[in-house]
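[retry 2/3] AtuA-like ferredoxin-fold domain-containing protein: previous attempt timed out, resubmitting with same input.
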Amino acid sequence: MRSLRELAVVRTGDKGALVTVAVLARNPVDYPLLARALPASVVAARLAPVLTGPVRRHELPLLGALLFSCAGVRGGGVSSSTELDAHGKTYGHLLLDIELEER
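[retry 2/3] AtuA-like ferredoxin-fold domain-containing protein: success.
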């Protein structure tokens, strides 16, 4: 098993209660592994403590990337939340320790 951190970088953005997390393969040959081993359900489970809405996955194979749209950020997002460090970038970094099964 390898961690997502070894295979990819993340970039995030947030607007209100919506966070987008882009997971970009460091090496294009690793994109198929990311696409197979990182479904929306895995991201939703990892972010469950901070999300109340669904997670949708969008595949961008020509970029070697997966884009996750995460709705229902707890507290309404950075502009209205009183929680410490509720910026979208923290959500992306929560994903980096996910262990991916290589088949």
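[retry 2/3] AtuA-like ferredoxin-fold domain-containing protein: The mean pLDDT is 83.
[retry 2/3] clearing retry counter.
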